[in-house]
Specification:
Layout lengths: L2 E2 L11 E5 L3 H12 L3 E5 L3 H10 L4 E3 L10 E4 L6 H8 L8 E4 L5 H10 L3 E2 L1 E3 L20 E4 L7 H13 L3 E4 L2 H27 L4 H10 L2 H7 L6 H10 L1 H23 L3 H14 L5
Parallel strand pairs: 2-3, 2-5, 3-4, 5-6, 6-7, 9-10
Antiparallel strand pairs: 1-10, 8-9
Helix pairs in contact: 3-4, 6-10
């Protein structure tokens, strides 16, 4: 079970922070860290993103070359999941040994082990925050405030590196937790990755309505409830696919448990067991606040 991690403080004057990947999460980090007084160096793949980051005033220096990270004390790798470990491997050619490297990926498992083998000062991290929109243009301040931020050290993780990441996450206003990579992946499969698949399946269910008139009416009548339940299903398709690809085993287990729950609901409705259905819904109502 994850417990709150001891919170330490650090001064912005002590560190230059690098961010590789200026999409939504990287952009939000850049905005917040600049606001906190850090020197923030960014690396992006596209020159258009470099220009946009400069124009937004979210970075001190920015470019397309990883060599820029040689001047940093801590680097956030904010690339797509498949590029995290290759990026750490490339960074190893430029960074001084003292630089801490962390990531923001939603799956830790093999990533933490592989990245730590390449860079001993690596700390797995996952800020539990996001939006349906993607890209630098969707970045905003305060995205991580009052949200969980999980760090996933392993036995060989350097304790001072963990302390640095925890200090930064704390200054972002996050509530910091620690978990093993395996426990993290099992938990987020249920509360993050499963909802994406369920939400997208809801949208596909509506899409499959054979009566065009009914489908159009449903689109016109959809309100706040549908907006809430369909939000994550309408998010970044690449991110959802990577959740399934990199957390396949845990997500499949969660999907199978969810299918069992759907079957139970179908059985109760078919059998017209309304008291049992109401009891089931009441339990769900009571449990929901524990996850909010």
């Amino acid at each position: 079970m994850s417990l709150p991690f001891p919170q330490t403080q650090t001064s912005p004057a002590e560190y230059t922070i690098g961010i590789v990947g200026l999409g939504l999460i990287g952009g939000c980090l850049a905005l917040d860290l600049t606001r906190l007084g850090y020197s923030v160096y960014g690396v992006a793949r596209r020159s258009e993103t470099v220009t946009a980051a400069l124009d937004a005033g979210m970075v001190t220096k920015v470019g397309c070359d990883l060599a820029l990270m040689a001047e940093t004390d801590l680097v956030f790798v904010c690339t797509p999941m498949a590029l995290i470990v290759p990026t750490v491997q490339k960074l190893a050619s430029y960074l001084p040994e003292s630089t801490v490297v962390t990531d923001v990926g939603s799956i830790k498992g093999e990533v933490v082990a592989a990245a730590t083998a390449l860079w001993p000062n690596f700390v797995g991290g996952h800020p539990m925050a996001g939006k349906a929109e993607s890209g630098l243009e969707a970045a905003e301040t305060g995205l991580f405030c009052q949200r969980p931020y999980v760090v996933t050290p392993i036995e060989t993780t350097v304790s001072t590196a963990v302390e640095r990441v925890v200090a930064i996450a704390t200054q972002l206003g996050s509530q910091v937790y620690t978990a093993t990579p395996a426990d993290h992946d099992q938990a987020v499969a249920a509360i993050s990755h499963l909802p994406v698949m369920v939400s997208s399946s809801l949208l596909h269910t509506c899409l499959s309505e054979p009566n065009t008139q009914v489908k159009t009416l449903a689109q016109q009548l959809a309100s706040s409830g549908f907006c809430d339940t369909s939000r994550v299903g309408g998010g970044n398709p690449e991110l959802g696919t990577m959740m399934a690809q990199f957390n396949r085993s845990a997500l499949l287990q969660a999907l199978q448990r969810y299918r069992q729950q759907l079957n139970t609901a179908i059985d109760l409705i078919e059998a017209e067991q309304w008291d049992a259905l109401e009891q089931r819904l009441s339990i769900a109502q009571q449990e929901r606040p524990k996850y909010l």
